[in-house]
Design brief:
The chain has one domain. The termini are close together. It contains 8 helices and 7 strands; from the N terminus they run αβαββαββαββαααα. A hairpin with a 6-residue loop joins β4 (88-91) and β5 (98-103). It has helices at residues 16-34, 48-56, 79-84, 118-121, 141-147, 154-165, 171-183, 190-210, and strands spanning 42-46, 63-64, 66-70, 88-91, 98-103, 123-124, 134-138. The chain has a 4-stranded mixed beta sheet. A 3-stranded mixed beta sheet has the order 2-5-4. Residues 30-183 form the DUF6036 domain.
Length: 212
């Protein structure tokens, strides 16, 4: 049974992982400030498990999957390498384990479908205000879900289901926007379409069961 209204998503950076993510980007912000970079010189969009964690806290991730948009950087300033060189340690609250957050140099949004309006729907981290040289955006729940239809590992599917169950995504809207994204996807369109149908079928069956 479809929920009548979507729950407005909010970002929670107060967890250990959330604080580690902020600290990683604060290191970059400090470097950009020392280079006299202008406000908004660099814009970053975070996808993946870290983004899911900020919305749901249903699991932790040790990889930062992000897309970097560079507006104006000083000559010789290698932002990706700088991020890779500033791993952040954090202690998982649930397991008590000491973990290390690393920037994934291999990540690319072309790994899966992506909707053209994802930037418009993104949320900004308030720790990086408009006057900061670094603007950090977190992809909206629905765009994270769409991006995960490409690889569709068990973990990816679990993340999509967590976002659906949290009420941050309407199943009808996920189907509509995902199909639009898949339509222009450069890869094989059949696998992500099949995964989408399977996820929505399972989700709707689960919600119908809960209604009785």
């Amino acid at each position: 049974m479809e929920m009548p209204e979507m729950i407005t998503p909010r970002l929670n950076t107060r967890t250990a992982l959330g604080q580690a993510l902020v600290s990683m980007f604060k290191s970059v912000e400090a470097e950009l400030t020392s280079e006299s970079a202008k406000p908004g010189a660099v814009k970053v969009m975070v996808f993946g498990g870290c983004a899911v964690h900020l919305y749901t806290n249903h699991r932790v991730s040790t990889d930062v999957d992000a897309e970097i948009y560079e507006a104006s950087l000083p000559d010789g300033f290698d932002l990706r390498m700088l991020l890779a060189q500033v791993p952040e340690q954090f202690r998982d609250e649930k397991s008590g384990r000491l973990m290390e957050l690393n920037y994934d140099l291999q990540y690319n949004t072309s790994f899966g479908p992506i909707h053209e309006d994802y930037w418009v729907r993104s949320l900004t981290l308030e720790e990086f205000p408009v006057e900061s040289p670094l603007h950090v955006h977190i992809a909206a729940p629905i765009d994270i879900a769409i991006s995960k239809l490409g690889r569709a590992t068990d973990q990816d599917i679990g993340d999509i289901m967590a976002l659906l169950r949290a009420g941050f995504i309407l199943s009808s809207e996920l189907r509509r926007l995902a199909l639009q994204a898949i339509d222009v996807y450069v890869g094989n369109k059949e696998p992500p379409t099949s995964v989408l149908n399977h996820i929505l079928q399972n989700y709707l069956e689960d919600t119908d069961d809960e209604a009785f």
